[in-house]
Design goal:
8 helices, Rossmann fold, Elongation Factor Tu (Ef-tu), domain 3, disordered N terminus, single chain
């Protein structure tokens, strides 16, 4: 990549919004913290704030209930809990953000996984009075398993323990002991009082013993990641063949670049066939580009008329994907119905859907030790587990750490068509959950 191209890629990466998820146990203050972030960064319109203030008075609160700024469903407002994933966009002078406020109740773990699966940073809220709970462990592990390496723990409700350093250090020690078991993670721990705004946007004067940055400073400095420098992956969504006589010889392969960069003149290989050809054009209406990077949606033209169809994957010649019919994967089980060895489902990966069989349950993740408990006869609701799957035909895939989009999938029930699990492919030599 020449200097000019590298500079443009860096600038584009810096301009991409930072996506972060917010999770934790019920009543740890997730929605209040998000509301405080939005309020103190001046993202709330006056009429919206007035509506929330009135709703807070009707519910008997002595102060504005900031969690109402993100609790969007009527059931959420009535129960005082987050059920769905609430996405909000905001910006500061330094950065743009997309925040996913995820549910804390164990019943809605699948919603939490949805919010974390696209995040650059996972912000996990811990009530200082209760310390590290099972949900803290579940959410931290799920976030890490689904690709989030940057974990920020907000030890909340410091105002309820008189901003005690000793109480914070106690919880900090618990978190560090737990986080030490997580694979390859960056950990940051900050004491906050979301209700009052301490260490949320501005550094708190009530905790002079804490000399680190406020939460917003941490988020503004966080690395947003980037898929431009990774091996090129392009799942084909559509073969473009215009019906007009004027363009009768036009043929292109349309889709979204999952990761990496492609340029005119590159040699690409189509999988699973293994046939290759040279890129002659990259179209993104109304432009014709010389190069394109993730996450652009483009149509790629090739010099040779090789057999390529929907669900094939294009890669560079020297960076092939994996072709597999049997593989290990880490899954989060979402369905109330148990999964037993031998059962069949639909597996959706990239743009391909194939039948899959659950061949083995290699172990259920123990949320305390983060080790695997062998001998399970079935997967139950909210289990995190390592399983062995086999597909009816070979699939084009990658280890999740190498290529998140081509290394992740969902399982769908054959009868109800419900999504029953989300999963990531393990590396062939890896032994981590």
């Amino acid at each position: 990549m020449n200097t000019e191209v590298a500079s443009r890629a860096h600038a584009a990466s810096e301009s991409r919004p930072l996506r972060f998820s917010v999770s934790g146990s019920v009543d740890d203050g997730k929605s209040t913290l998000v509301g405080r972030l939005l309020l103190d960064t001046k993202q709330i319109a006056e009429d919206q704030l007035a509506h929330v203030e009135e709703a807070s008075r009707r519910r008997g609160f002595s102060r504005t209930e900031l969690g109402l700024l993100t609790d969007g469903l009527r059931a959420e407002r009535e129960q005082g809990i987050t059920i769905d994933v609430a996405y909000r966009y905001f910006r500061t002078a330094k950065r743009r953000f997309i925040v996913a406020d995820t549910p804390g109740h164990v019943q809605y773990t699948r919603n939490m996984v949805t919010g974390a699966s696209t995040a650059d940073v996972a912000l996990l809220i811990v009530d200082v009075r209760h310390g590290v709970s099972e949900q803290t462990r579940r959410h931290a592990l799920a976030s890490r398993l689904f690709g989030v390496k940057n974990l920020v723990f907000g030890v909340n409700k410091m105002d309820l323990v008189d901003f005690s350093e000793a109480e914070f250090r106690r919880v900090e020690s618990e978190l560090l002991a737990f986080a030490d078991k997580l694979p390859r993670s960056s950990i940051t721990i900050v004491p906050v009082a979301a209700l009052l705004g301490d260490n949320i946007v501005e550094r708190s004067t009530a905790m002079p013993w804490y000399t680190g940055p406020a939460l917003l400073e941490i988020l503004e400095a966080a690395h947003a990641g980037g898929d431009r420098d990774k091996p090129f992956r392009f799942p084909v969504q559509w073969v473009v063949r215009p019906s007009s006589d004027e363009h009768h010889d036009y043929r292109a392969y349309a889709g979204q670049i999952a990761q990496g960069t492609v340029r005119v003149g590159d040699r690409l290989v189509a999988w699973p066939s293994g046939k290759s050809s040279i890129v002659t054009g990259i179209d993104r209406h109304p432009e014709t580009l010389q190069e394109a990077s993730a996450p652009l949606s483009v149509a790629i033209r090739l010099a040779d008329n090789i057999d390529i169809s929907r669900s094939d994957v294009l890669t560079h010649e020297g960076a092939p994907p994996r072709l597999a019919r049997s593989f290990s994967a880490t899954v989060a089980w979402f369905d109330a119905r148990e999964a037993k060895v031998g059962q069949r489902y639909w597996l959706k990966i990239n743009t391909r859907t194939v039948r899959v069989r659950l061949d083995a349950i290699e172990g259920i993740v123990d949320l305390t030790t983060l080790g695997l408990r062998a001998g399970a006869a079935a997967l139950a609701l909210n289990d995190l587990a390592v399983v062995r799957l086999s597909t009816s035909i070979p699939i084009v895939c990658d280890a999740y750490d190498d290529a998140p989009i081509t290394g992740s999938f969902i399982l769908v029930d054959e009868v109800s068509h419900d999504t029953v699990a989300a999963g990531i492919l393990k590396s062939e030599s890896g032994d981590e959950p």
